[in-house]
Amino acid sequence: MFQANSMTLITGSADQTAKLWNVETGAQLFTFNFDSPARSVDFAVGDKLAVITTDPFMELNSAIHVKRIARDPADQGGESVLILKGPQGRINRAVWGPLNRTIISAGEDAIVRIWDTETGKLLKESDKETGHKKTITSLAKAADGSHFLTGSLDKSAKLWDARTLELIKTYVTERPVNAVTMSPLLDHVVLGGGQDASAVTTTDHRAGKFEAKFFDKILQEEIGGVKGHFGPINALAFNPDGKSFSSGGEDGYVRLHHFDPDYFNIKI
Amino acid sequence: MGDVLIMNEIDATANRLGIDLLQVDLDSIQLPPGEDLGIISDDEDVYEDDDQEVESGFGNIIVVDNLPVVPKEKFEKLEGVIKEDGLWMPVDPETQKSLGYCFIEYNTPQEAELAKEKTNGYKLDRAHIFAVNMFDDFDKFMKVPDEWAPPEHKPYTPGENLQKWLTDEKARDQFVIRSGTDTEVLWNDARHLKPEPVYKRSYWTESFVQWSPLGTYLATVHRQGAAVWGGANTFNRLMRYAHPQVKLIDFSPGEKYLVTYSSHEPSNPRDANRVVINIFDVRTGKVMRDFKGSADEFAVGGTGGVAGVSWPVFRWGGGKDKYFAKLGKNMISVYETESFTLIDKKSLKVENVMDFSWSPTDPIISLFVPELGGGNQPARVSLVQIPSKEELRQKNLFSVSDCKMYWQSSGDYLAVKVDRYTKTKKSTYTGFELFRIKERDIPIEVLELDNKNDKIIAFAWEPKGHRFAVIHGDSPRPDISFYSMRTAQHAGRVSKLTTLKGKQANALFWSPSGRFIVLAGLKGFNGQLEFYNVDELETMATAEHFMATDVEWDPTGRYVATAVTSVHEMENGFNIWSFNGKLLYRTLKDHFFQFLWRPRPPSFLTPEKEEEIAKNLKKYSKKYEAEDQDVSMQLSEQEREKRRSLKNEWEKKISEWKRLHEEEKMERQMLRDGEASDEEEEYEAKEVEVEEVLDVTEEVEE
């Protein structure tokens, strides 16, 4: 996750650490140590705090750690300001809510949770009936933080209000969703996924069938797809100018796509 | 509805605990002995109906009458004949002789019944034939009034109109689908481009569902037996048929009878399975006849199906459910449904018969006897009239390795596919014997493909028509040829219409009214579909339903359904196409098991009336076109409305968020130490020039 000024990068790793890096020089600035693999990381508004999630490991449950980020790397310490425990299973994504007042987490138990950063209390949980039915794999915030998109192995993605956790939209597709992202320019939502390699029993003779599917954000209807990967798509990100996006997949390829002028004129 | 509610609760509990009910092996659950946890077993329902007489407490006692009257000395001898514990022979106190009858008590009423069946009528000697009755029966017979009173007259309550679905104003067809634990019946509403629900139920069946041949009933299969459902507007259970562990069912074509089949493990593992087949009257639920035996008796000829038996074991024929026949060893057993016994009380003896097939319309059986004695006795195909058992036509075939019979749907033609050995006996080539059934003396024509060595992949007659299609060839893209049994130029001879070369197809699906056909490439071809017009001999459309496993025309021939079932893990669901290949709508359903159109009974219109309608089609179609227009305008209006409201809702949300965002602006600035970098939407790309020292070299001048 990049800081707002793109000077510092924070990464989480299965080697049970999270690290701060200087983007220009590539130098490591600081290492946070944990007792289990670190998975999801996010800078808070103002970049003075970061949230890091750790996986369940041996007897340890999964947890959400909040760390203070010093302006000057030399002052950086490793202590947690707050540790949240509770969700069952792996937490796949945790991000800051508006004004850093809340932390939003989602993971294996298919429930989206909103925590109070000051007290550490659980404020809201997504409804079992209307929420996701399987592991939530991915989460993407809108640029202004007012809403966010979750993608799940239950072959759907859902759009939520970040303040109230109201379920606003659902997008249904045919394959489990591994990655989601929203266009910063148009009202488009992109889902990427595909069946896990270990579960595939028939070889797909149509190479490159795995698509990044575009949906109209408001009408919830599929607009089209971008083919090319021949393995499940695991990561998606829009260029902040909204004119291109990149996708990364199980096939080991990262693809950069630039949109035709026609893309910007799509009307359903 | 009580059952459904309880299941919902169970579902909810399972979800909460994270248990996938479909994975739970219900059979492995063992209740503590004697405990039923207060849950009423479904089985008890069925048994309760039978055991209503057992309340007296004397249900396990029988009375044996007509015993010889004997003095005490002979008691033991007499008792020796009826030796059982619990025997009481009353004695006349005056004569000290037995009174001629005795009472015997058994452990259970079932044992008593069995004893009564076995011993009633037993001849001890000429003067003494046992008359054995249940003790309770005496009570019943004593109660019979001396005067006959006419039975009570129950007022006539008309049943529901089971054919109501045919009167749908929009002339839609229904279909049933099974996905996950749900079974749903829906209308195919092609105008609205989506299905309309009729009835849905979870756990409606325990394994599969099946429509009756004329569409009146939907049959479900359970551990205790089968059941049929139907009704005017919804599906009520009309009748139950008890048959524990039933595995397969079959309706007679007129829906009068239901045949059920089960196969049971024998007590001695080396024996074959035990097979039980019941034939029920559909409307009353009464067992008309049962067949019990070893699986060997039922698995003759043909290809093995479930547990080695090819289903259906009994094939119906002769129209109006008149006859049913079974293939046996060296015989065909033909039964008639007046008395459910063999015609002429014996089977039709045909030495070495391998396969037989009924005409779909007439009481004629075609049968095939393979070659014997290394070529000494040639193979033959015969047509036999039932019930006379007279052979109508016969043809000897030489060098035959295998044979398959295909009847045309109106019984006009029979095609026999014959695989013959080449002279070297190393390979086979195929030809067809075509019988013209309705013509005098049943002429037979021999047809060979242009390339004799082509393997036949599929063959199908045009329903109600004179044409047939054949997929042949060895390559990964075989050819498809169309033939007609009567063309204008050659009235009495089969002639080829056309050959389509190099098609990705391995299955043929004619429309039920003929004229159109779907050439499908299933399995290895992954769902290629070609919609072909056989009248014009041209392709109407090519399409694809990726990984389709099933293709089925609706009973009117207007629509085609293609489905991907749970054989595949992904993309389960079904598509509905128009007859000419336009995709109308698709529905995705995970864990998709079955898609079945509801059959229609044959039309009541006379051929003359049908012709009149065809002539005046333009007049009739005007009315429907107008209706279609209305609906499509309505649809687009509805669509637009929906979109407008969605957009409005969204606008409201956006403005709400904007407002909150504005309010929080101050706080945000503070978090960033006073930096007003709110315009993060428009990010700035700054190009920064950085000077980097790559290398330092010192040059020393000498």
TrEMBL record, chain A:
SUPFAM superfamilies named in the record: Quinoprotein alcohol dehydrogenase-like
One GO location term (cellular component): eukaryotic translation initiation factor 3 complex
Pfam families for this protein: EIF3I
Start-end of each WD repeat: 1-31, 84-125, 129-170, 226-256
Keyword Transport: no
InterPro entries: eIF3i, Quinoprotein_ADH-like_sf, WD40/YVTN_repeat-like_dom_sf, WD40_PAC1, WD40_repeat_CS, WD40_rpt
UniProt entry keywords in alphabetical sequence: Cytoplasm, Initiation factor, Protein biosynthesis, Repeat, WD repeat
GO molecular function: translation initiation factor activity
Protein biosynthesis among keywords: yes
Coiled coil: none
UniProt record similarity statement: Belongs to the WD repeat STRAP family.
Name of this protein: Serine-threonine kinase receptor-associated protein
Lineage: Eukaryota, Viridiplantae, Streptophyta, Embryophyta, Tracheophyta
TrEMBL record, chain B:
Superkingdom assignment: Eukaryota
Protein's UniProt keywords contain Protein biosynthesis: yes
Record region (Disordered): 628-647, 665-702
GO terms, molecular function: RNA binding; translation initiation factor activity; translation initiation factor binding
Subcellular locations according to the entry: Cytoplasm
Feature: compositional bias, Acidic residues: 676-702
Basic and acidic residues bias: start-end ranges: 637-647, 665-675
Keywords on record: Cytoplasm, Initiation factor, Protein biosynthesis, RNA-binding
Matching PANTHER family: EUKARYOTIC TRANSLATION INITIATION FACTOR 3 EIF3 -RELATED, EUKARYOTIC TRANSLATION INITIATION FACTOR 3 SUBUNIT B
Alphabetical list of HAMAP family matching this protein: eIF3b (MF_03001)
Homology family: Belongs to the eIF-3 subunit B family.
Full protein name: Eukaryotic translation initiation factor 3 subunit B
Organism: Citrus sinensis (Sweet orange)
